[in-house]
Write a structure and sequence with these properties.
Keywords: Signal. This protein is an alpha+beta fold. It has 2 domains: 37-256, Ferritin (Up-down Bundle), CATH 1.20.1260; 265-368, Immunoglobulin-like (Sandwich), CATH 2.60.40. It has helices at residues 4-21, 25-33, 52-62, 77-105, 116-146, 164-191, 198-218, 234-245, 328-331, 352-357; strands spanning 266-267, 278-284, 294-300, 306-308, 310-316, 319-325, 335-343, 359-368. The strands form 2 sheets. Strands 1-2-6-5 form a 4-stranded antiparallel beta sheet, with no helix packed on it. Strands 4-3-7-8 form a 4-stranded antiparallel beta sheet. Strand 5 and strand 6 (319-325) form a beta hairpin. The longest helix is centred in the middle third of the chain and has 31 residues, at 116-146. It is globular. Residues 1-25 have low confidence and may be disordered. It binds 2-acetamido-2-deoxy-beta-D-glucopyranose (5 copies). One 2-acetamido-2-deoxy-beta-D-glucopyranose binds next to helix 4. Residues 74-76, 192-194 line the site of one 2-acetamido-2-deoxy-beta-D-glucopyranose.
Length: 369
């Protein structure tokens, strides 16, 4: 047990860390200056390049440390791709939670929380999450550097939210994609012989799941979403991030990531619930992509993807609006569903990897319950 002096010193250390990490004046200035997108980096604690003293502060704010055991000497090429995707995503998350914490702390319109104890708990939680995501990013970028590769650099970001409820709902959505993608990451590490890197990923899957439980609870949803969470792939996550949150052309070294690029698929149906039986989407016809043999595919839970035909209901210029069945009731399609347009059929699109490899448009993200 700690003696009282140690305890007080630790507390003082913590409050210093919180104060110096709190994203107040400089963040505001950066946001105002960045009508072209939000880039809060470097943070006041030096992230994404903190020195060792700043890393200590981040660890105190994160309520724990970076892994301090040995890292293997070698890694597979696919393993490097894994680390790049993780870094790309985690740096985006740091930007998001930095701005969300700023908004709540400063009572930005739409982010005011009346009840004092609720407000204090939200700020305490987001303060921990912000730093925990910083450590996830530093761990992945640190490993890239250890293996002789360039760390992933921050982009400029856009977040399509203006109030606390929408921001938490968005955090719920992107975290569910992360929870699916880390399944892919851990499988690829295992297949490629990068066994030593699997255990820490499994620990992060649990960590992101704990966050997800709170984002769901906040919305009045059952904290545990599904018995087996929806899977995803690195390419699906990459395109979800790039299409929705990155200012085009703002990511200095995104081109070093060997992900495939998809065209956007926009979900038009505004609220999807357990009574929804069909959905409308739109996409922009793109030169070089054949419309023949395109199917609407849903990835949900750990199940064989659902492949549906669709009808074109409207064509306006290059923009095509389509309608397809959403077989919720037959398949208990709760939680995250990832919708894409892919080339193939029910016989070839038998798992998430096959779907992802044949995707042309997407992903569109749907969460029921
Ligand atoms: C790393 O090196 C060890 C020892 O040479 C080898 O057994 C292992 O397969 C290598 N791993 C990868 C991912 O290349
Ligand atoms: C923070 O508030 C601003 C102003 O309403 C908004 O534009 C931005 O999207 C918000 N960010 C987050 C992460 O909620
Ligand atoms: C935000 O509002 C709370 C009351 O809900 C108040 O205690 C706090 O000082 C305000 N903070 C700022 C930065 O305006
Ligand atoms: C990212 O998305 C933009 C459109 O927002 C697109 O032009 C660009 O090709 C995409 N980048 C990659 C590397 O996929
Ligand atoms: C679905 O429809 C049933 C019967 O009309 C209704 O009782 C239920 O509230 C609806 N569910 C949702 C999520 O709207």
């Amino acid at each position: 047990m700690r003696n009282p002096t140690e305890y007080i010193t630790a507390l003082l250390g913590l409050s210093t860390a919180l104060a110096s990490a709190s994203p107040i004046a400089t963040e505001k200035a950066r946001r105002d200056a960045s009508s072209q997108g939000f880039n809060p980096f470097p943070l006041d604690n030096g992230f994404p390049n903190p020195d060792s003293k700043e890393t200590d502060q981040i660890q105190q704010q994160a309520l724990g440390t970076l892994p301090n055991g040995p890292v293997p000497d070698n890694i597979s090429g696919e393993g490097l791709f894994n680390l790049q995707i993780i870094a790309l995503n985690e740096i985006f998350e740091v930007a998001f939670f930095t701005e969300l914490l700023y908004n709540v702390t400063n009572n930005v319109t739409g982010y005011e929380v009346e009840q004092a104890d609720k407000r204090e708990f939200i700020i305490r939680t987001l303060t921990a999450v912000q730093a925990q995501e910083e450590l996830h990013a530093l761990n992945a970028n640190g490993a890239l550097q250890h293996f002789g590769h360039a760390p992933i650099q921050p982009c400029k970001y856009k977040f399509p939210v203006n109030d606390l409820d929408s921001a938490i709902k968005l955090a719920n959505t992107f975290t569910s994609v992360v929870l699916g993608t880390l399944q892919d990451v851990v499988e690829v590490f295992a297949q490629m012989g990068d066994t030593a890197l699997t255990r820490s990923i499994a620990s992060v899957i649990g960590q992101e799941g704990e966050q997800e439980g709170w984002y769901r609870f906040f919305q009045g949803k059952v904290p545990s979403e599904l018995p087996f969470l929806t899977t995803a792939t690195r390419d699906l996550a990459f395109n979800a991030l790039n299409q929705s949150f990155f200012v085009p052309g703002s990511c200095p070294n995104i081109d070093t990531i060997p992900a495939r690029t998809f065209e956007p698929l926009t979900l038009l149906t505004s609220s999807v619930d357990s009574n929804t039986t069909s959905l409308q989407f739109s996409f922009v016809l793109t030169r070089g992509i054949s419309e023949d043999n395109l199917k609407l595919v849903y990835i949900n839970q750990q199940n064989v993807p659902i492949v549906e035909d669709f009808d074109a209901v409207k064509v306006e210029g290059d923009t095509v609006t389509i309608q397809a069945a959403f077989p919720y009731a037959q398949n208990e399609m709760n939680g995250l569903t990832i919708a894409v347009l892919a080339h193939g059929d029910q016989d070839s699109l038998t798992d998430a990897n096959a779907v992802s490899d044949h995707t042309k448009f997407g992903p569109a993200l749907i969460i029921v319950n």
